[in-house]
Amino acid sequence: MEKLEAVIFDFDGTIVDTEKVYYENMRDLTKEVLNEKLDKMDYIKNVSGTNEETSRKYYNDTYGMSSEDYDKFEAEITKRILDNYHNAPVLPGIAEVMEYLYNHGIKMAVASNGKREHIETGLRRKGFEKYISAIATKEEVKNPKPAPDIYLLAAKKLGADINNTIAVEDSRPGALGAAASGATLILQTNDITKYMDFTGVNYKYKDVDLVETVRSIVEK
């Protein structure tokens, strides 16, 4: 990296600790709709950090859920998540690092397999709108994470060289996409994604003090 131009954050599980909220809501709704148990480790392996089509396939293969029924299931999950954002805390170091980057003129974006409505709502409710100059989502690319497309699009929107960009991720699919894009990857796991297998993921830093790590890169 010649000089840091931008930082691109994943959203769920990286900016806001929604992974636990997601799991609890999917577990509860799976029980309500299907009278089946969604095991936490199965969720981590097959759903967490993936895209909607992967989750849809898991529910079809495991529970026989039709695509039409999954659409209704997904819509209800999205509603519950949006209604429960107040229960999802901001992850450690995020507010501080965004303020630091903002004060140093470093551009920021969000790159997510989630929906734009979901991300915009979360940023607004947590007071992070002013920091984020661009949002790239699965709705805008042919191939979501673990492909690099979302990260490449986010960098393009910022007018930044992806090779002079930091990506902050929490999950294996997202980390694979970020690393493949050419960005310098900071992997910050949470209470859900820490159980994922990150073998073969080309990260530069893992579970570090985010503020100090970013500061050291900016000020080197």
UniProtKB/TrEMBL annotation:
Domain of life: Bacteria
NCBIfam families from the UniProt entry: HAD-SF-IA-v3
Name assigned to this protein: HAD family phosphatase
